[in-house]
Amino acid sequence: MTCSVHRSPDDPSERRNFLSSIAGAGALLAFPGQVRAAQVGDTMGELYVNGQRAAPGTRIQPGDRVLTGPESSITFNVGPDAFRLRQLTSLQIDGRGFIAGLRILTGGLLGVFGKGGPRVLRTATVTAGIRGTGIYVEASSIVTYFCTCYGAVDLECVAYKSKKDVRADNHQANYIYGRVEAGRSIVEAPVVNHTNAELMELEKMVGRVSPLG
Predict the structure, then answer these.
(1) What's this model's pTM, rounded to 2 decimal places?
(2) Does residue 21 lie in a domain region?
(3) CATH of the domain at 164
(4) Quick check: 105 and 27 in contact, CB under 8 A?
(5) I need a labelling partner for 113 at 20 to 30 A (CA). Which of 21, 33, 74, 154 fits?
(6) Contact of 116 with 81, CB cutoff 8 Å
(7) C-alpha to C-alpha distance for 86 and 96, rounded to whole angstroms
(8) Count of H-run helices and E-run strands, the chain
(9) Is residue 33 part of a domain?
(10) Structural domains of the chain, count
(11) In this structure, are residues 138 and 124 in contact, taking their beta carbons and an 8 Å threshold?
(12) The domain containing residue 182 runs over which residues?
């Protein structure tokens, strides 16, 4: 069983669909506390903030819309949490003066989270409670790939309300489907498309050492 979430950068129709999807409903990744702006780290390829092509050093603030183009990526941190967005990812940061949440329509997100109250991540197919955790997510309208790289995550399938509690020291991945596959809505998955080195880099960005080495 495979999960193809990222679209081919060579397919113009897929890129048009991606860029036109930003007005739709997406996922919510809620953060506590007040963060007025986040500094962008490494970028590659096309990055747009509020529809404008962004340059290195662009500050991302609550209320901003962030898009990555084909073969593009961006890293940034919000307080004690750090993220890397993959290519063709659409992210809306909700809030005014503080972050109320993040909406991701489609694409890939690698994230590491500091200690504190639980966060809630939602895609079209899953609601996940996360805390002090490293995760990797690839989201589409029909399936979510969710790897708990380390830490604790409580998964709940949006369509069927089935649940799975995941506690991981070294990568435990699942597919969460919008329609039942093989009699289950949450199915174990292989570890794909992210590395320990990337997680270590994100933890270093916020002054921590990854538990993976």
Answers:
(1) 0.80
(2) no
(3) 2.60.120.1440
(4) yes
(5) 21
(6) no
(7) 25
(8) 2, 17
(9) yes
(10) 1
(11) no
(12) 27-205
